[in-house]
Amino acid sequence: MTEAIKVGIISAPERASDLTSRMIEELANDFSSEINNDTKWKVDRIVDSLIGSTTTASEILDRTKDIKEEKEWNFAISVTDLPIFHRGHVVAGNVNQKDGVAQISIPAFGWIPIKQRIKKAIIQLVKELIGDKKFKNISSSQTITRTKDKSGRHKKNGFPVTFIRRYPINENKKNGIDIRYSVHPKINGLIRLFIGMIFANNPLKIISSFKKIIAIAFTTGTFALIFPTVWQLSQVFSNFRLTMIMVAAIIGLVLWIIAAHRLWVFSSVQDKTRIRHLYNLTTTSTLLIDVITYYVILFSLFFITSALLVPTEHFVDTVSDEGKVTIGDYLRVAWVVSSLSTIVSAIGAGLENEELVQDITYGYRQIHRYEKSNR
């Protein structure tokens, strides 16, 4: 009986681990159907903190090689949620054919449908590691070739995302990398990476920690609704001024959360300026998504409350010269109260789960994993 080919998937904790765990049962069948159906495949998966704490491809591949030899796998692929760069380009994957190891960076694949993209990428990298000389019955459509279109530019070759291109490394391979997959052009790669990092942060994960802020904001706002001054302000303020107050409230709450929970990254494990800026931009954008979601929830609550709590007759006498009010009038009241209560709640409330909040930052996760891997 032919001995099974053992492929190991080594994932970073959290996002990468969750992603690979959802596909691990499918990979053996995928290898059989996509690469060679006459071979028995065995796929194992482990989680390793060091894979998620370094942004250096050579360190990731060295660690992957050590684990591969320890586990006696034929091939090993590491999956990290950290960004990888080479000469300014975002790197989606690297291959070391000699040592039988490869590496994938999840954020380079952007947003949905991320699971299918990563699974196809793993299959592609296993093909690279095996090579067409290992299995004579691999079809020509499955072999890895580098073709050009009529303009002479390289086409994508099997990698699942547009703009990701395969580059054989012909230079002096000090780091052992034979093949690199990079995202081109650079601006596309940075945009895709940025979206992928926000998605990896799982923005809506910390919404549950806003319960205390929502409670204080709703209590404050409901109390303010009984005063006619708030109703009058909603009619006096222009749409531009209401928008500016809302923007100020949202940005203020984001900055307060960053400062109160020490989310700004001043140094990373590698202490690279570009990485720090990217981490901080991702954290700010993630929190913006959270706070905007919180604001929408609060606005909805205040709209319902104002419609139920504010006496229609008194409201008409206070704000209307025509003897009637519309839904738009109640929406403007909810708009004012949502903004004001957001500002007040930011001053007096804290998020409930500080560890969960800190976990949305790449720098915090990276340092935590690095410390864990060195215990």
Describe the model.
The model is unreliable at 133-161 (pLDDT under 50). With 375 residues, the chain is α/β, with parallel strands linked by helices. A hairpin with a 2-residue loop joins β4 and β5 (89-96). Strands 1, 2, 3, 4, 5, 6, 7 and 8 form an 8-stranded mixed sheet that branches. Helix content is 52%, strand content 12%. It has 13 helices and 8 strands. It is elongated, with a radius of gyration of 26 Å. The chain has 2 domains: 5-196, 3-Layer(aba) Sandwich (Collagenase (Catalytic Domain)), CATH 3.40.390; 202-373, no CATH class.
Give a quick rundown of the structure.
The protein is 52% helix and 12% strand. By secondary structure, the protein is an alpha/beta fold. The protein folds into 2 domains: 5-196, Collagenase (Catalytic Domain); 202-373, no CATH class.
Q: Major β-sheet, in short?
A: 8 strands, mixed
Order of helices and strands: EHHEHEEEEHEEHHHHHHHHH
Structural class: alpha/beta
CATH top level label of the largest domain: Alpha Beta
DSSP strand count: 8
Shape: elongated
**Which stretches are poorly predicted, pLDDT < 50 over at least 5 residues?**
133-161
Our measurement of the CA-to-CA distance between the termini, rounded to an integer number of angstroms, reads 42 Å
CATH topology of the largest domain: Collagenase (Catalytic Domain)
| Rg on CA atoms, Å | 26 Å
Helical stretch count? 13
β-strand percent reads: 5-15%
Averaging pLDDT over every residue, what do you get? 80
Q: How many domains comprise the coordinates?
A: 2
**Percent of residues in helices:** 40-55%
CATH second-level architecture of the largest domain: 3-Layer(aba) Sandwich
